[in-house]
Amino acid sequence: MNLQEELLNKLKEDETEIIRIRRHLHEYPEISFHEKETATYIKKYYQQLGCPIHDCGDGYGFYIDIDSNTAGPHLALRADFDALAVQENNNLSFKSKHPGVMHACGHDGHTAYLMVLAKNLWQIKDKLRGKIRIIHQPAEEISPGGAISMLKDGVLDGIDQIIGLHLMSSMPTSMIGIHKGETQTGRASFEIKLIGKGGHASMPHLSNDAIIAGAYLVTMLQTIVSRRINPFDTASVTIGSFEGVGSFNAIKENVTLKGDVRIMKESTRKLVKSQIFQLVNGLQTSFNIKASINYDDNYPVLINNEQLANEAITALTKAKLPEVSTVMDPGPQDPSEDFSYFSQNIPGLFFYVGCMAADQTNHPHHSPDFYVNENSLLIAAKAAAIITLHTLFK
């Protein structure tokens, strides 16, 4: 039996442990930047294994090193562990016990698979080459994200390359997806405050209606993508919140709009931002109002290193996992991901493992009924193990 077969067999034996950990995390979720008990739970697991733990960043992030004490590549594996402010609407025995908080994106599964994979890699470290850094990252969901402070604190010091994965409810559970190059969108968010002059609804000529100005702005912002972005490029501008609550017979003095930007090229980010500021400045003149913008350029475009992607495809295809029907290219993905900060610094690979329900029903990420087919957890662990060993011994 070779080392890969040994590791994959150990993971299969530990499948129930992966599921048990995932269910515990799912039952006790914590939102971004508040994951104190989650971090304590994960750390306790490693402490029982005798792994030295290194706190990292200004949140609850940490890492452990699995060092073979022999020459070889230095590889990092990363998983996130924060939940979302979503009220769960699933009938599960391990349904969230924290009102208004739910693991609605699969981070509980990411953490569970990596913990058990790390345990098994720790147990065979004398048979490995190089070093593996296991990174447990908080606060992926909310800007500025947990990756930035961990990077500033040296989490990638001495690391050659990094690997992460995401469970995907839109993909069949037997499918693994790997895309090369620009893989997930970059992101920005903004808040625009418009201040006019309030007054009586029967006397609009004596007022300056901020709602009218805001309504025009919502429409004008849509022209950025339709008239300023190359049709062969990718971008979206969304107004997700328009706060202008008032009385039916009063003209509103101020409104607040909150929006989201997604792009697939960093050059497009600059164009969209400049256009938003230009339109808002023009709105002040056109409607004689005052405006302010709080603009947050955050997650970069996530770029997969082509060589790492090709090597992972080769290794996974060669392994012929019985649980995997295909390794395919799912194309670029719309959501953003702060793994992109890591892959900006060193070569990175971020791939996908399908977790679609067995009955093929739709359970979207971030929805109250998000659902993970738990058969995907072993696939995630095995896939990461195969790529890890291939990287260390190539």
Write out the strand line-up for the largest beta sheet, numbering strands in chain order: 1-2-4-3-5-16-6-15
Quick one: how many beta strands?
16
Largest sheet: 8 strands, mixed
User: What are the segments in which pLDDT stays under 50 over at least 5 consecutive residues?
Assistant: none
Protein described:
It is elongated and about 85 Å long. Helix 8 crosses helix 10. It contains ten helices and 16 strands. It is of the alpha/beta class and about 400 residues long. The strands form four sheets. An eight-stranded mixed sheet has the order 1-2-4-3-5-16-6-15. Strands 10-12-8-13 form a four-stranded antiparallel sheet, with helices on one face. The longest helix is centred in the last third of the chain and has 22 residues. The model has no long low-confidence stretch (mean pLDDT about 95).
Key terms:
eight-stranded mixed sheet; four-stranded antiparallel sheet; 16 strands; elongated; 394 residues; alpha/beta
SSE topology sketch:
Blueprint: H1 3-13, H2 15-27, H3 36-49, E1 54-55, E2 62-67, E3 74-80, H4 107-123, E4 131-137, H5 147-152, E5 161-168, E6 175-177, E7 181-184, E8 186-195, E9 199-200, H6 210-228, E10 235-243, E11 250-251, E12 254-263, H7 266-287, E13 290-297, E14 302-304, H8 306-319, E15 326-328, H9 339-345, E16 348-354, H10 375-393
Parallel strand pairs: 3-4, 3-5, 5-16, 6-15
Antiparallel strand pairs: 1-2, 2-4, 6-16, 7-14, 8-12, 8-13, 9-11, 10-12
